[in-house]
Amino acid sequence: MPQTAKFAHVSAPPSSIKIRRATVADAAAIVEIYNHEVQFETSTFDLVPRTLEAQQAWISARSGAFSAIVAIDETDTVVGFGALSEYRDRAAYKTSVENSVYVKRNLARSGIGRLILTNLLQQAADSGFHSVMARIEASSLASRGLHESCGFTLVGIEREIGRKFGRWLDVALMQCLLHEQPNI
Question: Most CB within 10 Å of its CB: which of 16, 136, 148, 161?
Fold first, then answer.
């Protein structure tokens, strides 16, 4: 197994940032954040930008433990979002979920991602899940560091599992066992 890298410090979010459940009215802001990642980054392996209608449907289809959340600033502007998703569809996996966290690029490393992720971990624990998984493009040390700082450990690397921007990409698989987290 690869060595764990030394990760940059993730700062605390500004106190003005709040978390709430996403609504269909947030779809345009969410799709703007997400589509930047689709078009210019490797944080998602999607290759085609989402439409506003698809984003609205995605939000509408989510409920309970799988409700999307947004981080908003003091002007109620969406600056990030996250969600839990089914990890796998076979019955034995029902106690595990996968997380997704996205933050506006100009606000990276400001602590907003940590705020979103800690809220998702609490949401998972409150919903009775046992394990939260993260699949992160392996060279994204910032995302891996964020997850590590929230109690995730590296459990494997999927080598050359995806192809984007003309190159093969590895995925770091990270896991958080909720019962091992002291603050959850």
Answer: 136
